[in-house]
């Protein structure tokens, strides 16, 4: 349950940021990869796969936000995207890295996004 809430909050914050800033999905993915590489000490193979995954899901989020409709109407898709990303991330990260990602990295990225939206 905690994981689902974390995913949802990260995605909602990311989506709001992309919408508000017209953020380039590549820049978003680069930011996420940088943080994850540093904090999770990714090896080269993991870094390559995480880079690809972050870009793939940043593009999905941007496409979702550019569609017509309210944020409320997009919530189901936001949840689905978050579940898909976490499932894919579990294939790349070790159990310990995944726990750190969920408990520390996602909240850190959410905080960063909120600060960017305010500033």
Plain-language structure description:
The structure is a single chain. The chain is 88% helix and 0% strand. The model has no long low-confidence stretch (mean pLDDT 83). The chain is globular and about 40 Å long. α1 crosses α3 (44-66). The protein is an all-alpha fold and 119 residues long. The chain has one domain. The chain contains 5 helices and no strands.
Which key phrases capture this entry?
119 residues, mainly alpha, 5 helices
Order of helices and strands: HHHHH
Termini Cα gap: 31 Å
* Low-confidence regions: none
Biggest sheet: strands, sense, closure?
none
Number of domains in the coordinates?
1
Structural class: mainly alpha
Q: Give a count of the beta strands, DSSP E runs of length 2 or more.
A: 0
Detail the topology: elements first, then pairings.
Blueprint: H1 2-21, H2 25-40, H3 44-66, H4 71-92, H5 95-118
Provide a concise account of the structure shown.
With 119 residues, the chain is mainly α. 88% of the residues lie in helices and 0% in strands.
């Amino acid at each position: 349950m905690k994981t689902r809430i974390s995913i949802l909050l990260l995605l909602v914050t990311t989506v709001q940021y992309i919408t508000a800033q017209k953020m380039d999905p590549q820049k978003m993915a680069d930011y996420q990869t940088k943080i994850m590489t540093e904090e999770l000490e990714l090896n080269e193979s993991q870094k390559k796969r995480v880079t690809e995954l972050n870009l793939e899901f940043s593009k999905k989020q941007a496409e979702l936000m550019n569609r017509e409709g309210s944020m409320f109407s997009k919530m189901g898709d936001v949840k689905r995207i978050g579940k898909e990303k976490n499932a894919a991330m579990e294939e790349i990260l070790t159990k310990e890295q995944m726990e750190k990602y969920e408990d520390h990295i996602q909240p850190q990225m959410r905080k960063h996004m909120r600060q960017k939206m305010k500033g």
